[in-house]
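Submission checklist for the structure archive. All mandatory fields must be present; incomplete records are returned to the submitter.

[x] Identifier: Succinic semialdehyde dehydrogenase
[x] Organism: Aequoribacter fuscus
[x] Residue count: 475
[x] Sequence attached
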Amino acid sequence: MTTWTDLVNADAFTEQGLVVTNPATGNVLATLRDMSDSEVNAIIAEADLARVAWASLTAKSRAAKLKAWNDLILANQEKLAQLITAECGKPLAEARGEVAYGASFLEWFAEEAKRVYGDVIPAHAEGKQILVLKQPIGTAAAITPWNFPLAMITRKAGPALAAGCSMVLKPAEATPLTALALETLAQRAGIPAPLFRVITTTQPAHVGGILCASDTIRKLSFTGSTAVGKILMRQSADTMKKLSFELGGNAPFIVFDDADINAAVDGAMVSKYRNAGQTCVCVNRFLVQDSVYDDFVAKLTERVSAMKVGNGAEEGVTVGPLINQAALDKVEKLMTDACEKGAKIAAGGHRVDGDGAFYAPTVLTEVTPEMAIFSNEIFGPVATVVRFNTEEEAIAIANATEYGLAAYFYTQNLGRSWRVMQALEYGMVGVNEGIISTEVAPFGGVKHSGLGREGSKYGIDEYLEIKYCLVGGLT
């Protein structure tokens, strides 16, 4: 069997420190060094020193290094997929997809490195020229989550390095091994070690505070909860960092009466149950028009009931464990509250025996806004189904949240497509599509779901500063 151990440098391991476990089995995968404050500060200083020479390279030279990193990730796809599954529990098929998706950001930003264009603006007076330059912001830091332990890193490190910045990374304490494997592959690709460094720690909040308080770090990118994002924003205020945050969501999935119901169910399955419902763009609320409600629920329930729960490394498993016991307890608490207030279980609704935090894929009907599960991000394999009558009502329900990350709807009416697409207060909208993530499109939310964009041609702008130069004396 292919193993991932050669992808992590031996000096990362220790006998006491950060313990990494497999959420499906509870087995310890590794114990990693718990870096001290002095080590963290040294990494930041070395990154800031190294970025000067890196930024002076041609964009084509930086692009070649990023492309080599992309190629090494793809060459090690199976090892990385097994590592992702071991760390966060998602089925191997999904993990393989994440490796390819993560690598795509390096390929994309390798190409975008060569397209950082400035401007020449017509001058306001004779004998002058106005130039606009785009320059790397400097040393960047990133804090990434456990649910996409590879792709959330490359989506940030790719544009940073392409722009000429260095990056210091603090991965989630549940999934640091994937980050360390990426660090190894980056060095093998010829990217100087100080430019992309991984911090391992048992004190993530403390290290986050160090990153926020550092004047050396000029940019912070974070993917995680809205509550933590607000803390990081407050902690970064004194150093006036440039920030980009991808935070929590409460995604609606609207099924109108003119939708292709079979297509809507297909979209529901991939959008809701991927990674056991543990993604920021997972559907939280299915809003289904009354006349097609029963048909949609029946077809969704049939599909959900056939899903196989278990260790993601096992053949045929489509739903892995939740990341830990606390996540399982949260789902159970939300389910209990909903059922006490009148919701009905059409499928699942219970724990699944095993060493890990397994919960059965669930369909919960007759959900109403009074239930906590309606407004809280579930982060578990539970589909909540809500009735509505009119288009206006669906839009109002969908927008009645502080979050605005992703939204989905299904209709075969072209006019309705445009009306609803424009009316939804979300940073991303899938129309007759359940999967919206791609390296070529801008990923990000509005309202309490964050600020800034990742991926696409807009993603590299997050790591650039605009400099205006007025040149006189030209007559």
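[x] Structure attached
Curator remark: The chain has two domains: 5-247+449-469, 251-438. DSSP finds 14 helices and 22 strands in the chain.
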